[in-house]
Amino acid sequence: MRRTVALRLGLSALAGVLLFLAVPTYGLWPLMWLAVVPQLYVARVAATPRRAFLYGWLTGFVANAGGFSWMDGLLERFGHMPGLEALPIMGLLVGYQGLAFAFFSWGVRRAWDRTRAPLVLLAPLVMVTVELVLPQIFPYYLGFSQAFVPAVIQIADLTGPLGVTALLLAANGAVAD
Question: Most exposed of 35, 86, 140, 156 (fewest Cβ within 10 Å)?
Fold first, then answer.
C-alpha cells in the first residue's frame, strides 16, 4: 500500500518536473508531448477521484514552483520582502495555480469512470475546459510551451492557444492509452 502511494506521488512529482522543464525558460519543449502521461496514469489508477485531485494538485504545485521560481526574487527585490516572507506568498501562488492540474486530474478520473472513453479524447477535453474556466493569477496555457516551434504553434492561428493545448494533450492521452 505504501509503495503504491509512494509510486503515485513520485509519478505526480515527475509530471510536474517534466512540465516546468518544457516551458520556454528551460527550453525542453519536446517534453510537453509526454509530460502529462505520468499524471494521466495516476489519475486513472487513483483510489478515488478525490485522491486523483490531490495527486494532480501535487503535479501542479511542482510544475508551478519550477515555472514561477522567479517570483521569489521578484518579491524580495521589488516587494522589499525578506526571503522568509516572500516564500509563503510564493507558496500561495503556486498552490493556487496548481489547482489547474488538480481539477484536470479529477476531471479525467470522473470522465473516465463514467465513459471509459480513450484518454486521447478525454485529456484534451478536460484540460481545455480547465484552462478556459479556471481563473489564473498569471494566465498561461500548456500550448505556450511550443511558442518557439513554428511548425506546431501555427495551429494557434486557427485555434488560439487552446488548440495547441488540445493537440499536446491528445498526444499525451494517446501515449497513456
Answer: 140
